[in-house]
Structure formats: C-alpha cells, structure tokens
Amino acid sequence: MGEESSKLSKAELEELCLKQNIxxxxxxxxxxxxxxxxxxxxxxxxxxxxxFLVDGSSRGKAVNEISTIERYLFDNEENTDAKSQFLASYYxxxxxxxxxxxxxxxxxxxxxxxxxxxxxxxxxxxxLYFNKKESASTFFKEYAIxxxxxxxxxxxxxxxxxxxQVELEIPVEDDKDMPGKIDEINLKLxxxxxxxxxxxxxxxxxxxxLPNLARFLTILLNEDSATWRDIMNKLKNLNVQxxxxxxxxxxxxxxxxxxTVFGIEIEKD
Length: 269
Fold this sequence. Notes:
Elements: H1 2-6, H2 10-19, E1 23-27, E2 34-38, H3 40-75, H4 80-100, H5 102-109, H6 113-118, H7 123-130, H8 136-140, H9 144-169, H10 185-194, H11 197-204, H12 209-220, H13 228-236, H14 249-261
Antiparallel strand pairs: 1-2
Helix pairs in contact: 3-9, 4-9, 9-14, 10-14, 12-13
C-alpha cells in the first residue's frame, strides 16, 4: 500500500481522500479556490485508536518499571539511604523528561489537540491509515509522535507512583513539596470532578443547574467572568468521553498527582 500510494499524484491522492470522506472540500473566501481540510469527525477515529494504543503501551511500560522499583525497595528494605537515592534518581529523571516535553503535554491536554494531531501526519499518511492492511499498532509505531507520546505518558504514570513513594521514603520540607499554582481551567475542573465537588454542587443547584454552576465556578476558580459559557460547555461534556471532555488520561494523572501531595485518597474503579 505504501508503494502504491507513493506513486499517486497530489491530485489523485486528494481525490481518493475526498471519496473516503477523509478530507472535505471548501471554497477559499478570498480567491474562490478549492481548499481541502481534514474531516475531524473521521480523524477522531484515528485519534481514539492512537490514544488507546498509547495508553496501553505506556501502562505496560509503567507496570514493568514499577515492578523493578518495588523489587529494589523490597531487597533494600533496611537500607534507607540506598532507597532514598534510588527513588530520588528515578524521580529526577521522570521530572526532567516531563518538563522537557511540557509543550507536547500541554498540546495533548489542549482542546485543539485534534487539530494539532493531524499536523504530525502528511495526507498520504492519513490515507494509508484508513487503508492499512497491518494492525494500527504496527502502523503508528513508524511515527515519532506515537513513540514520543508513549514515552511521555509512561513518565506521567510513573511520576504518579513515584510521588507517593518519595513522600514515604524521602523527608522533604513542606514548602519545597508544594505544587505550583494551578492556572489551567481543565485541570481545575478535573480535580473538582475527582473530589466529587461538581456532582455535589449539581445536587445543590436545582434550577438552571449548568448555567448557575458555571457562573459559580467561574467566580470560585478566579476565572475571567466572560468565560462562564466556555466553562458551561466543559461541564456539559464532562465525563462523556468525547474530544471535548477535559477528563483526559493526562489531566486525570496530573490531578491525582497533585491530590496525592496532600494525602487525598483517590477511589479506584
């Protein structure tokens, strides 16, 4: 399939993608020329499969690495210094990796991720995805964005585990262990959801529930008053598992990481 598609001209490739609804045709309002845009409804299928495979691969890597850490901690149960140095090294490496790839992390959490996602692939790549003969896993492994996202998500998962272990094994000053200020509204809402605050507030607002809840949260979370409608839309899509849902894997991991700092127990499904 790769060899066949590489022989296609740009016009032939665009025609095939139009027939399969991979792209949609629009008129440029400035010069009345035809322009082609990704069909996001179609691309969402690609993103869902991508996310599913990233989560599975990163989870497997994290489980294996955590098992290695647990074995070391067990074997050195009486050696506090060795355990502390071992965990500090892991923690530092994970923290540096996440910070180095912070922009990718923010892109993934962004509401614009579906539009950013397609930029990592050429039109030919997207065509090949929807006409592939191999598995999706084999297909995505050829692309740097997949491997980068697997590694990043692995480190985010690993950091969640390390945070709890570091608190147990390495004494730290309270002020140094404080997380930074939370500015991201999606993360704020994810934390409030995980704590059960949003469901509790819904029960206590019997009339015009979503508009009133959105206005209240806008003030409570110190957001610009003009953003309350945007927050209401986020609440509408909360936990519905679509592309507008703020409860992404990365948001939830970061929320749990912050909550763990303060000893907040998180109920597991």
